[in-house]
Write a structure and sequence with these properties.
2 helices, membrane, transmembrane
Length: 56
């Protein structure tokens, strides 16, 4: 019985780690999109967005 409990415990830790990684990736993506949008709309500066596109 303890083996099953340990398996579920480690599975939960793994799922929490995956969830935190996905949330962090989405947060960073939206942050970069917001910075790019602000630099174009407010400052009329296309260099930040063009640099990010050229690296890909």
């Amino acid at each position: 019985m303890s083996r099953i409990e340990n398996y579920h415990g480690s599975n939960t830790v793994f799922l929490v780690g995956v969830l935190m990684s996905v949330v962090g990736f989405v947060f960073i993506t939206f942050t970069l999109m917001a910075l790019c949008y602000r630099s174009v709309v407010v400052h009329r500066n296309f260099s930040l967005c063009l640099r990010l596109v050229e690296k890909k």
